[in-house]
Design goal:
With about 280 residues, the chain is an alpha+beta fold. The protein is about 40% helix and about 15% strand. A six-stranded antiparallel beta sheet has the order 1-2-9-4-7-10, with helices on one face. The chain has a four-stranded antiparallel beta sheet with strand order 3-8-5-6, with no helix packed on it. β5 and β6 form a beta hairpin.
Length: about 280
C-alpha cells in the first residue's frame, strides 16, 4: 500500500486547494475491500485512468463509473468498492472553494459523484492521467509541482463575491467560536451569515462544524487502540454533553456505535492511515 499527502507550494493554488493525496492498492495488498468514507464538507477532484472503475454506495443511491471524477461534498457516509487494485490521485479543495471556480454543474452540489474531463476543465491539451499517476507513484514532489502548474491558470480565473468572502471569514472562526456569536463578530446578521454560508458551501454552519468535529475525532481515535479509548473522555474532549449524545452522533454520522466502530475500524482513515500534510 502506497499513500501520501502534500500541500500545494504555490500560494495562489493554496488559496483553493488544501492538499494533494495519492493512494495505490496493489494485487497482494491486504485491506478492507469495502471501506467507508466519512462525511466531508470539502470537494475532491479524483484523477484516475480511464479504465479504472469506481463505486460509491449509499442506502438510497449508487454511483458507478470509470476514470476521473468529482467527489462533491457529502453529508452521508459512502461505502466504496476497493476489492480490486487501484491507483488514484486526489485534489482536495478547501470548504466552499468550488463555489468560486468555473465548474459544471454550478456549485454547490452535494452528495453527488460526477465524471469529469480534466483536459476540458483545465482548458489544457497536455494533461495526461497516465503521466501524472506515474509521477505520483515515483516522484510525489514532482507530481505536486506539476499539479500546481496545471491548476494555476484555471484557479486564477476564479471569482470572489461578497458571499464567498463572508463564508471564508466564517470558516476561520468555526472551530473555536459559538455559531450564535459569529454574525456579530463578522458585522452582519446571523440570518445573512447563514444564508451566505449555505449558498457557498451547501451546508449550514452547524452541519459544517459537525463534520469538521467528526474528522478531528476520527483522527484522534485512529491514533489509539481499542483498549486505550476512554469514550467518556472522548465525549468531553469533543464537546458532547454526555456519552449517550456521542453514541447517537456516531450512529447517525457513520452508521456505527462507538463500540462497533472501535472493533470494525472500517473507515478510510483506519485502512489507509492518517498522513499529516507536508
Amino acid at each position: 500500500m502506497i499513500n501520501w499527502i502534500h500541500s500545494p507550494k504555490n500560494p495562489d493554488v493554496a488559496k483553493y486547494v488544501e492538499c494533494y493525496w495519492f493512494l495505490e492498492k496493489k494485487q497482494n495488498d491486504n485491506g478492507h475491500n469495502q471501506p467507508k468514507l466519512n462525511p466531508d464538507p470539502a470537494g475532491h477532484l479524483i484523477i484516475a485512468s480511464s479504465e479504472q472503475g469506481y463505486q460509491y454506495d449509499l442506502e438510497t443511491m449508487s454511483a458507478k463509473g470509470n476514470g476521473s471524477h468529482w467527489l462533491f461534498p457529502h453529508c452521508h457516509t459512502y461505502q466504496m468498492d476497493h476489492s480490486k487494485p487501484f491507483m488514484i490521485l486526489g485534489v482536495k479543495f478547501h470548504i466552499g472553494a468550488l463555489y468560486s471556480l468555473d465548474i459544471t454543474p454550478k456549485q454547490p452540489v452535494l452528495d453527488q459523484v460526477i465524471d469529469v474531463d480534466i483536459n476540458a476543465l483545465l482548458n489544457s491539451e497536455i494533461f495526461s492521467e497516465t503521466d501524472i499517476l506515474v509521477k505520483a507513484r515515483l516522484h510525489p514532489e514532482i507530481c505536486c509541482d506539476t499539479l500546481d502548474e496545471l491548476l494555476l491558470p484555471w484557479l486564477l480565473n476564479s471569482r470572489q463575491d461578497k458571499h464567498s468572502k463572508l463564508t471564508h471569514s466564517a470558516l476561520s472562526l468555526l472551530s473555536d467560536t459559538p455559531i450564535s456569536n459569529m454574525g456579530e463578530l463578522l458585522h452582519c446578521s446571523q440570518r445573512t451569515l447563514e444564508r451566505c454560508f449555505v449558498r457557498v458551501t451547501g451546508f449550514t454552519c452547524k452541519q459544517c462544524q459537525s463534520m469538521n468535529r467528526l474528522e478531528a475525532m476520527l483522527e484522534y481515535l485512529y491514533q489509539r487502540k481499542e483498549k486505550d479509548i476512554d469514550w467518556a473522555h472522548v465525549a468531553y474532549k469533543f464537546g458532547f454533553s454526555d456519552q449517550p449524545h456521542l453514541i447517537r452522533y456516531l450512529k447517525s454520522s457513520i452508521g456505527s456505535t462507538p463500540g462497533e466502530y472501535a472493533k470494525q475500524r472500517d473507515l478510510t482513515i483506519d485502512i489507509y492511515g492518517g498522513v499529516e500534510s507536508s
